[in-house]
């Protein structure tokens, strides 16, 4: 006698403690197992692309750091690189170095947030999250020294960065670079070979390399499936061709690999910042102090390696001071394509953890 | 001389009412009982609220933050502040809720842990009753808690709460057996189930004599109490609040208090069964008891601050495939030893300690080689008819 | 360094493979007829020495007289990038074949274009509005979109 | 062995138990702020302002409202408009600093305070009198001349309009000596910073 069970439709979100913002999943479930997933997004849609059409090129910078609010420096960098291709302005060397230092520090912060919340979803009662946030605060103080704000930084301008780093920035950065590796070792001790974490995440929600590439997934999620594609190596922008670093790869493409990839990428980013601090020379940081640009008609798309994946601003200019059309290639949105394939068949507890392992930022998904 | 007479508080009030006030005998007996109950129940609830503050403070310090320090010195009145806040919070009963069950659930949750106090000896001679089946009585009280969770989850008409309560029932039942086996080992050693006799028999603390029993008791008890790493019933990240989602106001307060009082009760049990209750050197017996209980509570908070949560099917496979055989090994070892030396002298006890530690050192690694929680239960799962339909 | 396949090379490449599928080409991109889009994409995806495995981004631009749907392609093995465009004339009932059969990554991006710019994709597995709610009327990113006067009178929106 | 990873985790949390907590009791203790902090109360030197309203033009949200009177006199070199209305709607301001960056005469500076909350939305709009009356603690954001003299906006004496100084508008790109006086900011051989 088979028991006639009826599937239950459960709404996870939009108001749910662990959906990293306002994201909703309509799960069709048979008891604990998930049969069907339908993501519903758009709760944080602010129409940034429409707003960009009414602002001139420098004002749009303040728009970009509110898209992926956990990694605003890399948003600025992507937008400014695209504008520089349009206007043909090349920033001085010191400006490029400062940009890469800020972007790599932002990658460390973004990965820390991703790892902290990933383990919070696993149930580790906010302890690793608190350690991650404590270290993140130290880096945000650096950003405050650099550009006056911690989250909405608007630090980069077309033609370089808006102002040079103050004197006390360098010793503070030196202290952070010395302390961070020992903190990462400690975090790894706490989590990486914890049997419960391993049994909960290894082999769960596996994505194969081919599926990931076909679903245009990029960033740590793609590299966790073993595909070696990092735009900092493939198409080096700014000074990435003058620094040496490895690109960590995962083998199985499951939740555990996506977590380990981010930990190893934090170590690589610290190495990059180390080399940048060694190679940087005094000099101007900004090619021009102009704030109004009238680029020739044309279009530009310069993808960069943001912490969440390939981020690019497709700008179309019609010769006026405002962009005619701006499209943001949001890695968080496109990484959600395979959500259904990842979650179906697993349990409710794994759904939350797998969603957390993609490291999605709703500000960027909804724009 | 019923055990109640031995109790100092009872005999004190009984004597006071009969001699000084010259009241009738039955009134004195009633007053004595009321005095004892007042002190025991309120003392226990006080320790429970104190533990809520201690847990938040300790977990805070583990997470490199300060923990409550605004209400009273070192934030010690935080628990009372929470209670007052909950009293004034609006007490919502959802429209779809089954009203009777919904209101009864918190009471059914708190009552058993208070009832189980009757057998706990807080110090030399201060216990309410010395039942000779005390251990069985405590296990029975523990079982009722799973009923309360089911009532709460089912009656609040919320899908997530229903899921939470289904998980709770499965987990609590499957962890009863290893818990009972661990307690069986202890009663074998002590020869009787009464708490006072167990403490008398513990010339060497049972923690040393049966390490496997202690480990199994810890794991099974943390599953019974929904403590991490087994807190799937009100897992914040998945089920928002589990069976507690729809509760607000003082109903939630009673649930919260019941959960923490259960942990204190488990601490008391562990102290009595494995750490030799109040028996030790110069300090008064009550103080030793409190030190041991708060030691257990510190470890409980430590584990809560560190360990992530296991998935429900992993918890069940862990219970049936690994904890259960381990408890069988433990009971077998203790049974053989008690047959060999029915009334163990001190020397024989120390031999038992050595033997049991060797067994533990062998059993745990051997079994952990076999522990494989990764293959999901999905592998052998029958395909539910629903899945064919979709 | 990523080799950028210029529009003219792409046009020649695609042109001699699928005759008269290329309508226009300039330095940056090559334009393809809407009907030949899926075949061109399949050719660019499957052909070993093109090997554009990754569809970087799909977007659309409203040039008032016509719409341009832009496909940024990336080849991981050859480390090359190319831009493919399709020009749709007119403003009402614009439709195009969906490329989700070639790259599954286009699914959400095409839904976003349908939602914000009103270009519908036939053959799309689940063509619904992505960012605005179901009751929303109009396509905000069109040049002629005007905010309707408050209060909105849509069924359950606004 | 099954439990080793879990024990290692417990040791790590125990280590953190002994460390000093990293949190700060906000009202009593304060987090040290950077001197470039983009704060709330704008500093505006009425003597330097010529009423050119480029700050209003460059504000992405368009929340600065300026009304000027052409025949107003001012000590600034050459005549300038007298500013009658200068409202900044702080309720909608996001403190991005575009207005301060766009001001060609260094008249408008970012503030350095973040506790200017009000009960009503109208009080959030600061007008000309408030800006004139407020004592001047400008933040050193995009003001290298203040940074060069290590001006700390959080304590001490307010700044007068003369000594707030005005940086030569071409200080950035062409001339490397534009660097703050510390000059080279790379660590010397023994790892010390000048």
Describe what you observe in this structure.
The complex is a heterotetramer of chains A (367), B (390), C (158) and D (194). With 367 residues, chain A is α+β, with helices and mostly antiparallel strands. Chain A has one domain: Cytochrome-c3 Hydrogenase, chain B (Orthogonal Bundle). Chain A is built from 15 helices and nine strands. In chain A, strands 6, 7, 8 and 9 form a four-stranded antiparallel sheet that branches. In chain A, helix 4 packs antiparallel against helix 14 and helix 6 packs antiparallel against helix 11. The longest helix of chain A has 30 residues. The N and C termini of chain A lie far apart (51 Å). Chain B has two domains: 88 residues; 300 residues, no CATH class. Chain B has 16 helices and no strands. In chain B, helix 3 packs parallel to helix 13 and helix 6 runs antiparallel to helix 7. Chain B is globular, with a radius of gyration of 23 Å. About 3% of the residues of chain B have low confidence. Chain C has 158 residues and is an alpha/beta fold. Chain C has a domain of 91 residues: 2-Layer Sandwich (Beta Polymerase, domain 2), CATH 3.30.460. Chain C is 21% helix and 29% strand. In chain C, strands 1, 2, 3, 4, 5 and 6 form a six-stranded mixed sheet that branches. The termini of chain C are far apart. The relative contact order of chain C is 0.14. Chain D is an alpha+beta fold and 194 residues long. Chain D has six helices and five strands, in the order H-E-H-E-E-H-E-E-H-H-H. Chains A and D meet through helix 5, helix 6 and helix 7 of A and helix 1 and helix 3 of D.
């Amino acid at each position: 006698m088979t028991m006639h069970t009826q599937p239950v439709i459960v709404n996870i979100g939009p108001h749910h403690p662990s959906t990293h913002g306002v994201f909703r999943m309509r799960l069709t479930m048979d008891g604990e197992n998930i049969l069907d997933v339908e993501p519903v997004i758009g709760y944080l849609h602010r129409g940034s692309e429409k707003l960009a059409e009414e602002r001139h090129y420098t004002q749009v910078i303040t728009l970009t750091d509110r898209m992926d609010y956990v990694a605003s420096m890399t948003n600025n960098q992507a937008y400014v690189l695209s504008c520089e291709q349009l206007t043909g302005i090349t920033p001085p060397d010191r400006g490029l170095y400062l940009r890469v230092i800020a972007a790599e520090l932002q990658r460390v912060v973004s990965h820390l947030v991703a790892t902290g919340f990933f383990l919070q979803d696993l149930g580790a009662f906010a302890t690793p999250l608190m350690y991650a946030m404590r270290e993140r605060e130290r880096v945000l103080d650096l950003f405050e020294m650099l550009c006056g704000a911690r989250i909405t930084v608007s630090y980069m301008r077309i033609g370089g960065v808006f102002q040079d780093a103050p004197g006390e920035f360098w010793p503070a950065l030196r202290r952070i670079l010395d302390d961070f590796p020992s903190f990462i070792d400690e975090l790894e001790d706490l989590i990486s070979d914890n049997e419960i974490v391993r049994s909960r995440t290894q082999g769960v929600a596996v994505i194969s390399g081919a599926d990931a590439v076909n679903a245009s997934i990029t960033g740590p999620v793609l590299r966790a499936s073993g595909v070696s594609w990092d735009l900092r190596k493939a198409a080096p922008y700014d000074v990435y061709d003058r620094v040496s670093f490895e690109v960590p790869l995962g083998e199985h493409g499951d939740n555990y690999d996506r977590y380990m990839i981010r930990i190893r990428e934090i170590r690589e980013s610290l190495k990059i910042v180390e080399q940048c601090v060694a190679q940087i020379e005094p000099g101007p940081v900004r090619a021009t102090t102009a704030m109004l640009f009238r680029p020739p008609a044309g279009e530009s798309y310069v993808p960069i390696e943001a912490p969440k994946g390939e981020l690019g601003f497709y700008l179309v200019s019609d010769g006026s001071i405002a962009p005619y059309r701006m499209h943001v290639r949001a890695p968080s949105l496109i990484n959600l394509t395979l959500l259904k394939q990842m979650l179906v068949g697993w349990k409710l507890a794994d759904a939350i953890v797998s969603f957390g392992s993609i490291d999605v930022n709703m500000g960027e998904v909804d724009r | 001389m019923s055990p109640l007479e031995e109790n100092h508080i009872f005999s004190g009030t009984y004597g006071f009412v009969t001699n000084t006030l010259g009241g009738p005998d039955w009134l004195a007996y009633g007053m004595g009982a009321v005095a004892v109950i007042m002190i025991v129940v309120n003392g226990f609830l006080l320790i429970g609220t104190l533990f809520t503050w201690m847990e938040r403070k300790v977990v805070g310090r583990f997470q490199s933050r300060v923990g409550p320090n605004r209400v009273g010195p070192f934030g010690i009145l935080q628990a009372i502040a929470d209670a007052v806040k909950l009293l004034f919070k609006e007490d919502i009963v959802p429209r779809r809720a089954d009203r009777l069950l919904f209101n009864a659930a918190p009471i059914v949750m708190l009552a058993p842990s208070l009832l189980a106090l009757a057998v706990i000896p807080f110090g030399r001679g201060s216990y309410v009753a010395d039942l000779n089946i005390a251990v069985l009585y405590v296990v029975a009280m523990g079982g009722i808690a799973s009923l309360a969770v089911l009532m709460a989850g089912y009656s609040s008409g919320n899908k997530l709460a229903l899921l939470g309560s289904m998980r709770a029932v499965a987990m609590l039942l499957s962890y009863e057996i290893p818990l009972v086996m661990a307690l069986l080992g202890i009663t074998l050693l002590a020869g009787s189930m009464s708490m006072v006799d167990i403490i008398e028999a513990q010339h060497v603390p049972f923690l040393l004599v049966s390490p496997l029993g202690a480990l199994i008791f810890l794991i099974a008890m943390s599953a019974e109490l929904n403590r991490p790493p087994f807190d799937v019933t009100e897992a914040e990240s998945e089920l928002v609040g589990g069976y507690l989602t729809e509760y607000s106001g003082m109903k939630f307060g009673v649930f919260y208090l019941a959960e923490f009082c259960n942990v204190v009760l488990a601490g008391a049990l562990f102290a009595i069964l494995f750490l030799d209750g109040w028996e030790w050197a110069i300090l008064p017996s009550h103080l030793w008891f409190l030190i041991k209980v708060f030691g257990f509570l510190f470890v409980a908070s430590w584990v809560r601050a560190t360990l992530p949560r296991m998935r429900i099917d992993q918890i069940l496979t862990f219970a049936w495939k690994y904890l259960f055989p381990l408890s069988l090994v433990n009971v077998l070892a203790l049974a053989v030893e008690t047959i060999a030396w029915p009334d163990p002298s001190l020397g024989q006890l120390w031999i038992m300690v050595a033997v049991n530690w060797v067994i533990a050192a062998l059993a745990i690694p051997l079994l952990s080689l076999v522990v494989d929680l990764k293959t999901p239960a999905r592998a052998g799962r029958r395909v539910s008819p629903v899945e064919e339909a979709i | 360094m990523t080799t950028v396949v210029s529009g003219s090379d792409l046009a020649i490449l695609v042109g001699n493979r699928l005759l008269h599928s290329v309508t226009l080409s300039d330095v940056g991109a090559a334009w393809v007829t809407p009907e030949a889009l899926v075949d061109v994409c399949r050719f660019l995806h499957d052909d070993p020495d093109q090997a554009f495995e990754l569809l970087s981004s799909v977007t659309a631009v409203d040039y008032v007289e016509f719409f341009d749907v832009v496909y940024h392609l990336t080849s991981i093995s050859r480390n090359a990038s190319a831009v493919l465009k399709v020009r749709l004339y007119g403003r009402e009932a614009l439709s195009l074949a969906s490329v989700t059969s070639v790259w599954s990554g286009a699914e959400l991006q095409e839904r976003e274009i349908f939602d914000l710019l009103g270009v519908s994709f036939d053959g799309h597995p689940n063509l619904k509005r992505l960012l605005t709610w179901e009751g929303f009327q109009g396509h905000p990113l069109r040049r002629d979109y005007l905010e309707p006067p408050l209060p909105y009178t849509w069924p359950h929106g606004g | 062995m099954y439990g080793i990873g879990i024990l290692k985790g417990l040791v790590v949390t125990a280590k953190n138990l002994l460390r000093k907590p990293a949190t700060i009791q906000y009202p009593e203790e304060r987090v040290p702020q950077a001197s470039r902090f983009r704060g709330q109360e704008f500093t505006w030197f009425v003597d330097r302002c010529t009423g050119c309203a480029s700050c209003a033009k460059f504000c992405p949200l368009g929340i600065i409202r300026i009304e000027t009177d052409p025949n107003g006199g001012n000590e600034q070199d050459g005549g300038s408009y007298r500013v009658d209305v200068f409202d900044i709607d702080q309720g909608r301001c996001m403190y991005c600093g575009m207005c301060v960056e766009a001001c060609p005469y260094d008249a408008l500076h970012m503030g350095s305070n973040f506790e200017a909350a009000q009960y009503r939305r109208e009080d959030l709009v600061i007008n000309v009198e408030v800006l004139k009356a407020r004592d001047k603690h400008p933040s050193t954001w995009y003001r290298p001349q203040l940074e060069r003299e290590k001006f700390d906006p959080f304590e001490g004496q307010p700044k007068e309009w003369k000594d707030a100084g005005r940086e030569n508008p071409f200080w950035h790109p062409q001339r490397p000596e534009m660097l703050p006086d510390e000059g080279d900011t790379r660590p010397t051989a023994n790892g010390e910073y000048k």
